[in-house]
Amino acid sequence: MEHEPLVSIIIPVYKVEQFLDACVASVTAQTYRNLEILLVDDGSPDACPTMCDAWAAKDPRITVIHKTNGGLSDARNAGIKQATGSYIYFADSDDTVAPTLVEDCLNAMSEYHADLVMFQFDTISESGRPLLSNYRHNDFDEVQILTPVEAIKKQVKAEIDGYFWAFLAPAATYRDTGFAFPVGRKIEDLSRICNVIGEATRVVRIPKVLYHYRMREGSITASWDPKLTRDWTKAADDREAYIIERFPELKGFMTLQQLNFFANLDYETIRQSLIAGLNINPEDADAIRRRIDRLSKTASESDEPIPDTLRELLGLLKLGVAKFADSAADALAAAPDAEPSESSMWLPLTKEQIAERWANTAHDGHDAADNDMTLAERFRDMREDWRQLRIQHIEAAEERKAERRAARNGVTFEQE
């Protein structure tokens, strides 16, 4: 390229000594060389601070920011403040990037006159082995050129994932708009993704896998807790508030899509979440019920009709959540100090029981057989993020078994 703008790559670092070298090595190996690499040591208690300094001594493009621990959002904000490049890219310190990531993105910007470039990604295990995945984000095989509104709609419908490492954006998007990640909260990507999309003039999506996302037990989404559930709700609220203020014509669309989001949290997802240890408590379940009621009322007063199948699923979800919340409250009252086991978790009704109860309620005169068909189709459609967590745990368990067997036989594994 005749003009080679400086690209700032911000990498927050915290307790990732096992993966940090692989991440930084993949960034320094970029075919595009005009980089400013900011390693933000977020008060990491392990060897990461020393490793960051060692990398800075080897590559003059690397600057290390040592700071007290404030979380991922705070670390990213610190990186933004110090970045001097024309473009900013975020990478997670336990992942790796393809060698042509920056070059491919800048070439796409030039070729398609875009200022925001998105790309595909794949998933790897802790040991770096490829994992099976089927993210809707990757479900395209030709270049897509989108307006900001079109891209926002795809993001809200989960056709574009809310990962900040899945795109390259102009630095002005972060510097000139008052942008900041929400400190003290997780799910920060979902909270701010549409703020970046909304400031673009043209978005291009290229069908190239340029990022390798590592699924590991120590990651934020793998260590789910009730606070994370609430942070997810806050993130969705932040996203909605920005979209409605920036694009008021999307208000009806946003209401309907929020309802679809809750409809997708069907019985099976809730059950699997509980078994996976996500610990949705009765208070959060009740909040979900109230939120559905409020959104349903708003949608009924708008010009966007709610599909009949969506109404059915919302009713089923409310029944399932209600059953779970009531059972959990009873169980806690009976044995407040007891620890729930996987086999005695406070689960909702079975899928068949919920369907039977719903069939016995008034629902606009629809035939029960039609409802069952709709449910069968819907229950097969699990959300990708929970499926990925299950894949991760299965992979990790299999790898541990293989390593134990090998250790007994005096065999060691070499990293690929």
UniProtKB/TrEMBL annotation:
Q: Indicate the transmembrane segments per the record.
A: none
Does Cell division appear among the keywords? Answer: no
Q: Which UniProt keywords apply?
A: Glycosyltransferase, Transferase
Asked if the Swiss-Prot or TrEMBL record annotates the protein with the keyword Repeat, the reply is no
Name of a matching Pfam family:
Glycos_transf_2
| Domain Glycosyltransferase 2-like: residue ranges | 8-137
A molecular function GO annotation? glycosyltransferase activity
Report the domain of life of the source organism: Bacteria
Q: Known InterPro entries for this protein? A: Glyco_trans_2-like (IPR001173), Nucleotide-diphossugar_trans (IPR029044)
Q: What name has this protein been given in UniProt?
A: Glycosyl transferase
